[in-house]
Specification:
This protein is an alpha+beta fold and 291 residues long. It has ten helices and six strands.
């Protein structure tokens, strides 16, 4: 899950206003990372079965600029996520990241080699789509690990229960409307179309041009996501979320065990604690992917 903001909820008979933080996160192989407007918190179960917790302020790249220039939101949030991962790993030594697996590393190498081989062929829509799908192979291999998929479910249940005002994450669904899986389908289409257009426009596109198309695809997909969040009842928004929901239901999430939910609760409590301490920080109003 990725971005955050604060949504104000006012009681009908109360003058005080309370904030429901819009939380994002990432499943770990043995725990959960959650981030809020200003901070991150993570919990992981170590080899001895104990739950270890860590938290800190999160890196933020030009937050004001991201608000003013919509197409920058996706790339900036992605860059922040990449900066956050090594920080979490260093502060919470017991945490195991999704790609810390020899099978995932092998999938990365194979997908990269296959993609380079396909680049030598004549450009076609089917070829570009295959190359884009190859880029998803490492993530699919990672999610074949039941623990990782279950902690992805923990992420959705913990955050979903909190947003619903419930203290029982088991009562929430393992699918969440703001999951990053909602970006998969639009990014596949946009990336394949962009790379095909690039091949038809330039005789030999270089890595910079291809990277620019990738960034543009991610930016447009993020804006489509933001639009769907602002217009949740529309046919377009429902169509946008449908593929991502099915990916979560069938592949990306599994029902967690009570022990795994316990780890998620520890991460949620910690992020709420540190965000409360950081009260007064500005909260972004941008609806972006949660996972």
């Amino acid at each position: 899950m990725s971005e955050t903001n604060g949504n104000r909820a006012a009681g009908s008979e109360q003058e005080e206003e309370s904030y429901v933080l819009r939380l994002g996160g990432m499943a770990l192989r043995n725990g959960l990372l959650i981030h809020g407007p200003t901070s991150w918190a993570a919990a992981a179960r170590d080899q001895d079965g104990e739950i270890q917790v860590a938290s800190a302020r999160k890196p933020m790249l030009a937050p004001d600029l991201a608000v003013r220039v919509p197409l920058l939101r996706g790339p900036l949030r992605l860059a922040e996520a990449f900066l956050l991962i090594p920080t979490v790993r260093m502060k919470l030594r017991s945490a195991r990241l999704p790609f810390e697996d020899v099978r995932v590393i092998a999938a990365m190498l194979i997908a990269s080699s296959a993609s380079r081989a396909l680049r030598r062929r004549k450009a076609s829509a089917s070829g570009e789509l295959v190359q884009t799908v190859l880029g998803l192979a490492p993530a699919m291999v990672a999610l074949s690990d039941r623990n990782l998929a279950a902690y992805h479910g923990v992420e959705h249940k913990a955050i979903g229960a909190y947003e619903a005002g419930s203290d029982d994450p088991a009562s929430a669904t393992k699918e969440h409307e703001r999951c990053g899986s909602n970006l998969v389908a639009p990014m596949l289409v946009l990336s394949a179309a962009g790379q095909l257009l690039l091949e038809r426009t330039l005789e030999e596109p270089g890595p910079i041009a291809r990277a620019a198309v990738g960034v543009a695809s991610a930016s447009l997909a993020a804006e489509m996501f933001a639009w769907s969040e602002r217009n949740p009842g529309t046919l377009g928004a429902r169509a946008f979320h449908k593929p991502g929901h099915e990916i979560q239901r069938l592949i990306a999430t599994k029902e967690p065990t009570p022990e795994q939910l316990e780890v998620g609760v520890a991460a949620l409590r910690e992020i709420l604690r540190v965000e409360q301490e950081a009260d007064g920080e500005s909260r972004s109003e941008d609806p972006l992917p949660a996972t």
